[in-house]
Amino acid sequence: MVAGHADRSYQIMQGDEDPGPNIDARSFHFPRLRASEEGTLPLRRGWIANRIALAVAIGVVLFSGTLGFAYLEDMSFFEAFYLLVISVTTVGYGDVHPVTEGGRVLALAIVPVGLLLVFGLGVSYVTDRLDDLVLRGGVGRLERKIGQLKNHFIVCGCGRLGREIATNLEKMGCPVVIIDRDRERLVEAGADLYLVGDALREEVLERAGIHRARAILTTFSQDTLNVYLVLEAREVAPEIEVISTASDREATRRLYLAGASRVVSPQLLGADILAKSAHSPSVYQLMTDIVSGTTPEDNIGQILINPGSPLEGRRLRDFAKMDVDVRVMLIRSDDSTQLSPDGGAELKAGSVLVVLGKREDLEKLDQLSLPSK
After folding, report:
1. Which end of the chain is less enclosed by CB atoms within 10 A, N or C?
2. Same-domain status, 208 and 353
3. 95 and 197 share one domain
4. Are residues 98 and 8 in the same domain?
């Protein structure tokens, strides 16, 4: 069952609601959806609108110019179209040309307009390609870089939330690939590694390296799109960690049913933080400092004890012998969670440690958590 894969630790629901029956969410039918709004892999509305307007304008010039020449010069439709094309493209073979005053006036008016439209379309296309080839090293090169990534994060959506997530992950030294259908939005965000495409499509997720990724994050503002992407990701890469946003508790429940590993609601989480900051400002400030990395320890990290790790079977007090200076906030295993464990706490394979410390100490502990070679 897909739902059985989900981590049922409701981070924001605080256990006040049951996630529902263990249902295989893939048995439901979901229509094919395409993201189309802010922060949800938006359609390239500005880019598409400009191209459509340009194409319509060119069509109007061709149609009106052809009719004008046909009427003023008493030509057949084909001859008029031929005259229009050689005039706008400045070829001017000389075999056909306006002979009436009205035809010449029309040529004077339509040739500059046609040139602007035709060459404007060409310049726009070349500019788009140059941005890829010169500024970004080319689409092929970009995808080759993505193809070499391992243990990276895939962020779906380059809206405000997606940008902040990607920025914070990069600050922590994590490789990030952003997927969005709006290329201009990706360029404006200064994304180093990105794909222009629909993240709801399997081939786009494959190009982003979903089978090699550490986790995929969906930042859509529509809960339906989040559910659909969770299902798609689970279908393509069943073992990947899928983290999703949600608008409310009901959406959170449905996303867990769909197979999300974790679900966070910015609205509910923000409300909870605001309430706590009003009730206990000092506690709130401490937690904010820890999460944002402004405490003397500077960093908070999560360490998974792998089977065969040198840490397996050791106790917390042994960290000093390993020259690792960290503070362990909690130890979480399948059957229990120890808050503020003492030095005698034993480390078991599969346990997760939440620790505070300097970056170099966290990196050293992370290496020690890996299986011995």
Report:
1. C
2. no
3. no
4. no
Residue 316 CA to residue 53 CA, distance in Å, equals 66
**How would DSSP label each residue in 57-97?**
HHHHHHHHHHHHHHHHTT--HHHHHHHHHHHHTT---SSS-
Read off the pLDDT of each residue in 337-356 and give the average, rounded to a whole number. Answer: 89
Spatial distance between the Cα atoms of 360 and 284, rounded to a whole number of angstroms: 27
Give the global pTM.
0.59
Q: Two tokens at 65?
A: 């110019």
- pLDDT tier, 223 (very low <50, low <70, confident <90, very high otherwise): very high
Query: What is the side-by-side strand order in the sheet with 299-304?
Result: 299-304, 352-357, 326-332, 337-339
Kindly report the average pLDDT of the chain as a whole number. Answer: 78
- Residue 257's CATH number: 3.40.50.720
Residue with tokens 């590993």: 261
* Residue 81 domain boundaries: 45-135
User: Do 160 and 308 sit in the same domain of this protein?
Assistant: no
3-state secondary structure of 348: coil
In single-letter form, the type of residue at position 347 comes to L
For 245, how many CA atoms within 13 A lie in the half-sphere containing its CB? 23
Q: For the chain, where are the alpha helices, taking DSSP H only?
A: 45-72, 77-88, 101-130, 139-147, 160-171, 183-188, 202-207, 223-236, 249-258, 266-279, 281-292, 359-368
Q: How far is CA 283 from CA 270, 273, 288, in A?
A: 15, 11, 9
> Around Cβ 358, how many Cβ atoms within 10 Å?
14
CATH code of the domain covering residue 319: 3.30.70.1450
CATH of the domain at 106: 1.10.287.70
